């Protein structure tokens, strides 16, 4: 149940989790929003969703995070959920090289279906599996620089990097948005994160029982 | 949690008041077939409405309970009156005093009452599967007696009777065989069961040799990708059920899913199909043991299960899954048109029975696709405990025209509308999260049966032609 504190926020950002199935998207989400990890979580069918608010630069940002099914067959359905997303965590599994090779394909998905100015962060998950590492940090780092992506390694299992990953992408979205808003006020026609993207959902979520529910 | 279908819209509640929940009381009950002419059977069939339920198997308590929960409508009194004492008498004369051996005999012509259990295993398991030892402490319920006479009485099982009985739930130790028959895996002619099983099982062994027992480097890239996906999903299959932690179970699940994918390239393996295999594994494995479902679910049964039994369960599961999926093929092909169609039908139906709820969903911005996709894709396996799904599927399997396609939509609508009141209090976040994790943890067969009953009422109201609808409307 959402508490009142959860409902009061300055901005609402929609972020999607994408990547091959089994890389740990659902566990990253549950670790971040509920501090839970489950070695035997069920596969995600369709989309799932959770929210959490964080503080950055004096503002409260509510992240609305959409977790999608990774399998190819579901792309037709899941791609609809890229609409309105201002951020994407593109996850691979550091112990399975093929999931890293597929990152290119996921970037293409984003180019085809997401907003052009979406902030993308590459996330190498399962960093706890040191003895099984199949993707070197340097390799992933180089790739992310080349594609202009933020990059971090995480472990949903031992929680390392998880909060940082979400904190960083949300902060980056916030900065980008403020910058764009400013340049828009300057009269430039630089693309800004349209208010529609953040506010359309905002409207639905405006505290309905702000004063009397507890 | 209140068990009443609070969400039922007023008109439906009214309908339920004047209708009882039993399917046969709503439908015309076909006259008993003359082939089932053994004494007593005809009489039973005539009385089928009156004591269809297995009330005698339950304690007086639960029975009472059940009625109060079924009672959205003052049906409780009706019900209690409607139960004639006959089943009780029968069970006393037939079981408690142990005198009625003639009945036992004609009900149990073979040592293994489940002819779907193979000869290889029956020697080891016959003592456990022998029906005479079946309900050790419990008296045989009326429902069981009905099943036994339908299954064992004549060489050709009356599918119509079997369907009719199964709609209201299959007694656990008849389930394995009944599911196989209802799915068309086994023929109605019982004399052909043994040969059918041995043929199908050897066909499966052949498929396994061809697709599975080959070196990995002889698989194409896409085959390897499929295998990888299956291997990712098998350990995530029904993790709340200890049985599925067992390595041998995981191995057969992996194999049969992969082989199914190889043989059905138009859809190949799609996540969620792994879920659909689980009821079969549990039910077929339970078929080797009396009252084996609990034993199976908690995994303790695996100590006793032999390799032969497991091989049979694997092959039977493969074929039954194949038959199930062939009825809903386009749910899993490219773009999943069947899934989209089902979700649309659910939305239409909900709009007709609970427009307020639909308005609310629209208002907060939730689309049916966002929550109902999973209901369709996994046939409610993600919403209910496995044992509840098994009960649900008894009814689905007994539906003649596509229980998994058609009737399922009515069940989903009843399910959704059941929570209507709560849902209408919720905003987007809360509602979405509620839908991801529906509060069905305490649901048992009873709640499933209520759900089925109201789904049935919906299907009679909205299932037929427009003309039919009008008739019903005017009687409201
Ligand atoms: N060792 C390890 N295992 C993980 C980690 N994150 C997820 N897993 C496991 O990987 C499997 C798939 O995780 P899941 O979150 O369902 O992946 P998804 O398909 O991307 O959503 C599960 O068995 C998880 O327990 C991690 O950081 N470390
Ligand atoms: Mg997932």
Automatic annotation (TrEMBL), chain A:
Can you list the GO cellular component terms from the UniProt entry? endomembrane system
Give the span(s) annotated as Disordered: 184-214
- Could you list this entry's UniProt keywords, alphabetically sorted: GTP-binding, Lipoprotein, Membrane, Nucleotide-binding, Prenylation
Pfam families of this UniProt entry?
Answer: Ras
Family annotation (InterPro entries)? P-loop_NTPase (IPR027417), Rab_GTPases_membrane_traffic (IPR050209), Small_GTP-bd (IPR005225), Small_GTPase (IPR001806)
Membrane topology category? Lipid-anchor
Subcellular location(s): the record lists:
Endomembrane system
Q: Which GO terms describe its molecular function?
A: GTP binding
Report the domain of life of the source organism: Eukaryota
Gene3D superfamilies in the cross-refs: P-loop containing nucleotide triphosphate hydrolases (3.40.50.300)
Instruction: Show the ranges annotated as biased composition (Polar residues).
Output: 192-203
The record's similarity note reads: Belongs to the small GTPase superfamily. Rab family.
**NCBIfam families registered for this protein in UniProt:** small_GTP (TIGR00231)
Specify the protein name.
Uncharacterized protein
Q: Which organism is it from?
A: Cyclotella atomus
UniProtKB/TrEMBL annotation, chain B:
* A GO molecular-function annotation: 14-3-3 protein binding
Domain named Rab-GAP TBC is located at 169-400
Q: Where is the composition biased (Low complexity)?
A: 108-136
Judging by the UniProt lineage, the source's domain of life is: Eukaryota
Ranges for region Disordered = 1-149
In which residue ranges is the amino acid composition biased (Basic and acidic residues)? 48-68, 87-103
Q: Which InterPro entries match?
A: Rab-GAP-TBC_dom, Rab-GAP_TBC_sf
Protein name (Swiss-Prot/TrEMBL):
Rab-GAP TBC domain-containing protein
- Species whose genome carries this gene: Cyclotella atomus
Q: What is the lineage of its organism?
A: Eukaryota, Sar, Stramenopiles, Ochrophyta, Bacillariophyta
